[in-house]
Every structure is written in C-alpha cells, then in structure tokens.
Amino acid sequence: MKRRFHENYHPTEQQRSLFPGISGNAVNGLGETRRRQPTPLYWFDPDTIPHGRLQKYFYENAERFEGKRAVTSKMADQRGPENLDPVAALCQQDTPQNFASRVKEFALSHEADLVGITEMRPEWVYAGHAVNEKWIVMLGLGMDQRELAKGPPREEDVSSADEVSRQYNRAARAAKALANYIRGLGWAAEARTGPMSGDMTMIPAAIEAGMGQLGKHGSIINDTWGASFRLSAVTTDLPLLSDAPRDIGVDDFCTRCQVCSSLCPPDAIFADKQTVRGELKWYVDFDKCIPYFNDTLGCGICIAECPWSLPGVAPKLTQKMLRRRSR
Ligand code: SF4
Ligand code: SF4
Q1: What angle do CA 49, 47, 300 make, to 5 degrees?
Q2: Looking at beta carbons, which pairs linking 110-113 to residues 24 or more positions away fall under 8 Å?
C-alpha cells in the first residue's frame, strides 16, 4: 500500500536526545507475562515520568503553532475534573437498573454519543494512583472523521489536532455534567477527562462496558463510530448495573487488514498481538510512535484511515463480520 504521510520519517536528533535510558515499551510492560497495574508513561506531570522531556517537547512544538492556529488555546481549554458541585445531602434511592437507565439517558442528552457501565477494576488504575469509586460510566464522544482525515498539521494548515481538541473539550463537559447530576442525587462521583492520563487507563474499561473492541492500532473500535471517538468517564458509588463486553468482529477484521500498519509513518504498529502485562493484545510501539506523534501534534493517521472510522461503515462492517461468523 502506498504511504501518503511523511514517507521515510525519522526522528530528529533533538527528539532522539530526549529519550530516557528506558524504553517506553518496557515501562508499558511489553513482553511481561505477569499481570500488574500500568505504570504512568505519558500525559502525566512531565517532571514525574521518565519520558517527561519528550512530553515537554510536544508542548513546545504546540506553541510553535500559537498565533497561526488555535490548537494550543483549544488544548488549554480542555477542562480538568476540578470545580464539581458538592454532593447533595439527601442520598436518593432507586434500583440499580433504574439508576443505570437514568444515568444513560442523562449522558446521551448531555453531549455523549456513547455510554456504557462497568465495575471498576484495580488493574486499570496506574501504580501509585487510586480510584475509590465502585462503578465507572464510560462516555464516548464522536469525532468528525473528515476533519481527522486532514491529517497532521503543516504549518498554517488546519489539521486533525483541532478536531481532537474540540472533542476532548466536549468529552470533559459531558463527564462533568454527568458527575454533577449524580452528585445532585446525593452520591459520590468524579469526572475523568483527557487528554492528561489521570488515575486510570480508560480503554480497557470502555471495552468491558461494551463500547467496542481493541483494534490493531491500539484504539477502541465501536460499531457506530469506528475508531473515530474520544473517551471520558465518571466513577461513582451510585448503585448501577454492568453492561457486557461485545464482540463486533474487530479481531477477525484486524487479523487480515493492514491499513493502519502500512500507513503509520514510523512503522509503529505491530502486525501481530503482543503480550503486555500478562495479556495478549494489539500493541503500538511507543518508542517509534511518540516522536512522530510529537512532531505532528497528535498524528491520528491510524484512527482516521481505519476502515471502521469512515462515515457509515462501522455498522455495515459489524453486520458483515458477525454474519460471516455465524456461517
Ligand atoms: S486499520 Fe485495519 S488493522 Fe488497523 S485497526 Fe483498523 S481495521 Fe484493524
Ligand atoms: S498515531 Fe502513532 S501509531 Fe498511529 S499512525 Fe501515528 S505514529 Fe503511527
């Protein structure tokens, strides 16, 4: 397949000099057969992580676009989980089923495009961090694939980074609105928003909550939005009911497809599943991806070009894959 993006990309000497003495894949647990909590890797306080100098390089690169484009100001607008309403004194009661329905209805009428619920698990929480609530409500915010497909920025061009920033903002608003709704019912609730990683990794929770399956490009694929959506979440003690993981045929499709791995400029996407912290799964080479990601303010080629992400395609692909399975 023909490469259309930055053929023969190689990281600059400047970025190479910023790598620490440890591989990001080692931090991630690539090749480790024992289950363990994830270790903070990227999008944390850069002074606390081995790859913090590379993260600072991203920030500096983003500032280059200041004045020419709105990316950095939009990034700054992405709101953290602070300033939530107080928890109401009266703790309302209802069945878990009814609360789950009410939460979903509220989320879908307050910007979320997808919603799923599951129980929190310790293995999703970063080492040294804590999530105290029992349940997690995952929210999905659809992105405009046509905007994503504009690709990495070229100086004054518009690019996928603008759309990603817009949807991170929407994801933050949706999570905060839902957390405030639950707090108004008298129950603890915390909003968990990107792009900073926060206390937990969200993709495994989204998969457990029935939102989709992991694709070869390391992002979750949904049967409506493909890989073209962002995540945020609310953790809460409100009694809820779990959704179940759903097989929509992504695994079978990815086994035969090579679109993302062929188009990825630094060849960061493994052709086969890898063992990571005791789990066999699709995996992206962090050390190869991150310099290109930094230079392009977020890249996203693999998500935009994934066949599932094309408008209207994911529902048809799901039907086709499941029909093939039942033969
Ligand atoms: S581009 Fe193809 S291989 Fe990559 S995640 Fe999408 S479907 Fe899977
Ligand atoms: S985001 Fe990373 S893995 Fe995806 S295409 Fe870009 S460089 Fe490759």
Answers
A1: 60
A2: 110/173, 110/174, 110/177, 110/178, 110/181, 111/141, 111/170, 111/173, 111/174, 111/177, 112/139, 112/140, 112/141, 112/174, 112/178, 113/140, 113/141, 113/142, 113/224, 113/225, 113/229
Which atom of ligand 2 is the closest one to the Cα of 260? 5
What average pLDDT does range 211-235 have in this prediction?
97
**Predicted TM-score (pTM) of this structure:** 0.93
Phi, psi of 226 (to 5 degrees): 60, -135
3-state secondary structure of 139: strand
Predicted confidence (pLDDT) per residue in 239-265, tens digit:
999 999 999 999 999 999 999 999 999
- CA 259 to ligand 2 center in whole angstroms: 12
The ligand 2 atom at the shortest distance from the C-alpha of residue 218 is: 3
Check: CB of residue 206 under 8 Å from CB of residue 249. Answer: no
